[in-house]
Amino acid sequence: MKTATVSSSCFHAYTSAFLQYPNHMKPAISNSNMKSSKFNRNVKSEIEIRVCVNKACSKQGSRETLEILSGISPPNIIIKSCGCLGKCGSGPNLVVLPEGVLVSHVGTPMKTAQVLACFSTAKENDPQNNLKSLALRKKADAELDNKNYEQALVLLSQAAEIKPFGGLHLIYKSRSSARLGMGDVSGALEDAKKALNLAPRFTQPILFAESSRYLSSLSAAYICQGDAFLEMEEFDAAEKSYSSALQTDPSIRRSKSFKARIAKLHEKLAAADLP
After folding, report:
1. Which parts of the chain are coiled coil (predicted)?
2. 154-181, pLDDT tens digit by residue?
3. Is the link from the previous residue into 164 a cis peptide, with omega within 30 of 0?
4. What pLDDT is recorded for position 119?
5. How many angstroms separate the CA atoms of 118 and 14, rounded?
């Protein structure tokens, strides 16, 4: 088993969260190897964090932990839910793969952000900034729900200016919707493209405000791009974006809002007398 090394700041975050390891994969952590600047990530650049959402951990707040991680994780860290990790009395629990590091008592937003920061390769990975940005985006999404596009745009721009080490693709996705609502079609398209370029393989679910349902963040970004193309009457590009959204998340086929988009596209094609 490879030796896991952590920085002193990360080690403090782990111990404050009561770091635990399964006996069959216990790595060695000692004062001598704590000088390493980062956890040993040489084996695999992309890591995966799985959060237990079984009954005991859910009661201790693991679903909130999962939501926070999904909202602030960078592109190289995949966030997923999982079943019981065997530490039911120490939840919420999560495991970091491929190292197999089990972290317990991750029950507050700050501890959640600290654990994520320890495994991030970003140069700027201040957990507090990440949480500030997340809070601003949540406020903005509430404004989007109420069609307060200008206020949402202000909040999302503030969130982007913080430069969080994760979650930027979600900020740009939401800002694309705000700009489209204000009639800034070119700005909406620009932000949708930024969201796609930042995290082209992001598939973890988010709540899409317009339809009040969960779908992959990548699919949501494709939908925003398609909406912008549709308003620009670039119908081929809009159809391609919607098709990409459907390929990424086939479940949206049942969504009323997605069906309405496709119907609107067909109406515009018919009005323009295009096949």
Report:
1. 132-159
2. 999 999 999 998 889 899 999 999 999 9
3. no
4. 82
5. 9
Question: What gap in Å lies between CA 67 and CA 181, rounded to an integer?
Answer: 26
Give the predicted TM-score (pTM) of the model.
0.77
Give tens-digit pLDDT for 218-228: 888 899 999 99
Residues 194, 251, 76: CA angle, nearest 5 degrees: 40
- Strand 47-52 and strand 77-82: the pairing is parallel
Helices (H) and strands (E) counted in the chain, each on its own, are: 11, 7
Q: CATH number of the domain at 127-273, out of 1.20.58.480, 1.25.40.10, 3.30.470.10, 3.50.50.60?
A: 1.25.40.10
pLDDT (0 to 100) of residue 106: 95
The dihedral over CA atoms of 209, 214, 217, 221, expressed in degrees to the nearest 10, equals -50
The structural architecture, per CATH, of the domain 1-7+46-125 is 3-Layer(aba) Sandwich (3.40)
Compute the distance between CA of residue 250 and CA of residue 244 in angstroms, rounded to an integer.
Answer: 10
Residues 27-45 have a mean pLDDT of 36
